[in-house]
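Quick start: what a row looks like.
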Amino acid sequence: MLLLAGTEKSGKSYEAAAFSGSDLIGRTFWIEIGEGEGHHYGAVPGARYELVPHDGSLRDILDAVRWAVWQPRGEDGKPNAIVLDSVSVLWELLGDEQAVISRRRAAERAARQKQPAPTDPTDYTITTDQWNVAKKRWGLVIDALRHHDGPVILCARMDEVTLFDAAGQPTKDRTWKIQAEKKLPFEVTGTLQLRGYRRAFLTGMRSLTLNITPDKTVPYPGFSLDKLMRDLGLHELEAAPRTYVAPQPEAYVEEHDSELARLADRNNRSREARQNAAQGQLPDPEAVSRAIRAAFESRSDKRRELVKVRAHYGASVLAQVVVSTPWGEMDANAAIDTALLNIEPATPGEQAGRPQPSGPAPAALPLDADEIERRLAEALSAPDAEQRLHTMREEYGAAPLAQTVVQTEWGTVDANSAITMALMSGNERQSAGSAPAPAPEPAPQQSPPVEPPAPPAPRTAPRRASMTAEERARANMIAELELQAQMLGMNTTEFVADLLPAGATSVEDIRGGSRLQDHIRGHRAQVLAAFTKRGMAQAAAEYAKFGDRVPARNINQFITGVLQGK
């Protein structure tokens, strides 16, 4: 993967088009984002590339990339090449997506406060969490390109900018800045900089054939991409031209709303199944058995299909339905767990619903206890701890994790429980600097004790002294919602999807205490069962004492006790 960065009119696209005529490669796929010059470069001598269409949304751009990656080599065995022109516009698109979300949130806040909607961009900001989302979506494209077995050319804009000193004052020094996600130069094989027309420099090259260390920037006279590929010892490349289509960041909003609606529908169906089960109306065991069998024998993503079955009926309902399986007679929830453990790793081609290309499939992730312990420790010390922990659970799968025993600061537990406890601990640590824990009993007015302070309260619980009774009740309910979500293996937004108003993304946006109360009360039995299943008998006994009382007054002390293994 090569980054071709250059100033305006320095010949980036021209060189990419010329490379499409190289005898090192077969077909060239050109994916154009916001440039509109794809057809123009077809007049370059020897150019022979194909424009890959898309509608300007990241979803469709990603589909175009994946399509190009999975195209087979020709009969001559030469690799295909991919050209992405330009990644600078792709990064701008991802920023625009988050700007749309920020603008809509600001408008909704203004509407609630009966104020006019903001029109000035300075009236709303893109938060750090939103930039993290943008980077994650950027990573989807880069990761898809990494699966390609030929050359990938990423075209980017580059500017010469002034450096500033520690006081924020401009200096006389200048440097070259690439207009893309800042980590891109570290993710490619190397960067070819065009600092002017045909003024080429190589930097950050990783090569065993070129005598250039990665920390050096050297001139590259008489350059062409064909010459560079030969100097690198490579014999594969892929490029695909694309007609101009305006980026559509609003498409992300549609995806966002569609996902919330899907989660709400799933939770509604699961709740209906639980209500029917409470009245003795369990689903037909034969129908459940057929659904599990069909998911396990699916030609697509077996794990995803099995999880869909569990989401459709609900884990607590499935636990009451006995089915026959190849592994014996057991409850349907256990049958899904067993099926998940018996899934053989799928090839990338099978997962994408396309024929498998030539070349070995990536190895399945081993359930190595030491590796899981290391990743848990790294996640807890990282700013994006919650995201990393959820990613771990998605990568390994809850069922395999539950079969792996690890050593943690909370004792010896299965890895799935360790992730849940880490999520809860992460929430505690995030609030350490802003919200001290409430004491179990009101403390008299006196000097602080000498002994160490109590553990920090959950991140949603602000200072009790400054809260009204209504605010305390709501903080307690939100704390329990987060606990329930984590014990059931979901993130909080997914857990409360059916309660969120349109466009909302946080539990803080839910209005109406009675809806929160009903949701918490309706899931306590499942959470109690989760404590028991994980061998947390003391926590289960204490949690059972809450009964039907919502909000639970001592939920924060209970969570602290769970974290400390009491």
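That is the whole record. Residues 236-244, 346-366, 431-465 have pLDDT under 50 and may be disordered. Residues 369-440+453-563 form one domain.
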